[in-house]
Amino acid sequence: MIEVQSLRRTYGTTLAVDDVSFTIEANTVVGFLGLNGAGKSTTLKVLAGLLMPTDGTVRVDGVDLAEAPVGFRQRIGFLPEEPPLYDEMTVREYLAFLARLRGLPESELDARIAEVARVTQLDHKLEQVIGELSHGYRKRAGIAQAIVHRPRLVILDEPISGLDPVQIVDMRQVIRSLAREATVLISSHNLPEISQVCDRILVLRDGRIVADGTEAELAARFNRANVVALTVRGDRERFDKLMAARPEVRSFEVRREEGGLIDAVVTMEGDDREALVAGIVGAGLGLRRIDDAVDELEEIFIDLNREVAA
Amino acid sequence: MKAVLLLARRELATYFNTRWGLVVLGAVLLLDGLLFNAFALTGKPRYSADVLEDFFYFSSGTTMIASILLTMRLLAEERQEGTEVLLQTAPVSEAQVVLGKYLGAFGFLAIITLLTIYMPLEIQVNGKVSWAQIAAGYTGLLGLGAASLAIGTFGSTLARNQLLAAVIGSLVLVLMLLGWLLSRITEPPISGVLAYVALFDRHFQPFMRGRINTESLVFYASVTFAFLLVSTRVLQFRRYR
Predict the structure, then answer these.
(1) For B97, nearest residue in chain A (alpha carbons)
(2) Structure ipTM over 0.90, yes or no
């Protein structure tokens, strides 16, 4: 279990993190969101044991960072945005060196490296020199080092940045499988990705936690459950008039208009999609698509920032 | 201790596996050989002990240069390449990191130093020198090297890149070498302190002549300890910055 209580971190006179508290249960995948300058990186660095807190406590499985920094770091695995790799080593040498440095018993070393290579899909790259690996495999080697010593908390900073679509699908699988043996904290700017792999989301703004919950809980907070994306064929003026007149529509926003097709996001008073569909068809417009709003987490995130700023 | 040895072993292996380590090794051996042939073996009749003394004199310079070249990468390169995070998040103390890396560099410098043994042996074959003078000279070289490496390590902990690390290390080293000169233009007690901290003049010269000076060994050990301690403190300080 990860416990953060009243965490505060300053750089000189600049306050980066202010009174942050949260608890994360074991084997959960948590997404960590925040705009640039929100204090996300500082919080991650404290959680990784790189920085000491100015105030407050950080515990992993009851081990306090300030009281037992070495024991704390034993329980952490960290992958920064740019994987920290020794290019002259083979993947096996690299993992063995770090596993030993982090105290993994020699008797378990070979089996653990094989296991980690399997989880991160690096099995066939173990004997390859790191400097010759492609970007996707470098990322995987970075994840492999973060878990090789069986940490209780794995922190991944932008784990999918720079990966191609196929690699992203693979990485999603890798991240989910990590949760079988550790708690995983992911920081990412890719909101759809966070929404796909995380059980819970923490949102940081101006050094404070401003939202904490599952995506559904955050959606409920902003009535996002009643937000749908539409594609309609027809005249723009007629569409605008219809949306303004429909009682179940609270607000709408046209996102794109091209080739006679209108893409719009509609916020309804309640989950009354049937009435909306009937209204559109009844008005002689062609309904091509109705769906949950795409990039829902992105919308929630924007709403949240608006709310906190207000 | 296990972590220290692990770090030292990796550092030592890196010197052998990368071009930089081998370039330093080759350059030092070449330079030592050239200086020995050009200045120590002048062709004129000389006492073997004087030739050996000259050899240790030249070797002290190449040892100090090698120390800076070997240590400039120790921590600055990790910082430059972003791999410093691996050491900072590992369950090891800052002292273990500094000591491990330092010992790796010391091991490599010791290998380079001992590879120069063919030159004293050449004097031994063609002339007559005491083994005691050879042993004393190498003890002095290793002591001077140990202190210089610690100074270089300190420079490497401060700098963001290797070049800057070399500049900082060299500046501190030169300042400590110039202690004897500064002691001549200052008044006591400052002149006494400056003369004492002079790395070469007061402390290395006895070794060249075959005398093992305990005071100088203590001095080299103290300089090594002090700079490694400050290096450790620099790394610790970064976590609270």
Answers:
(1) A101
(2) no
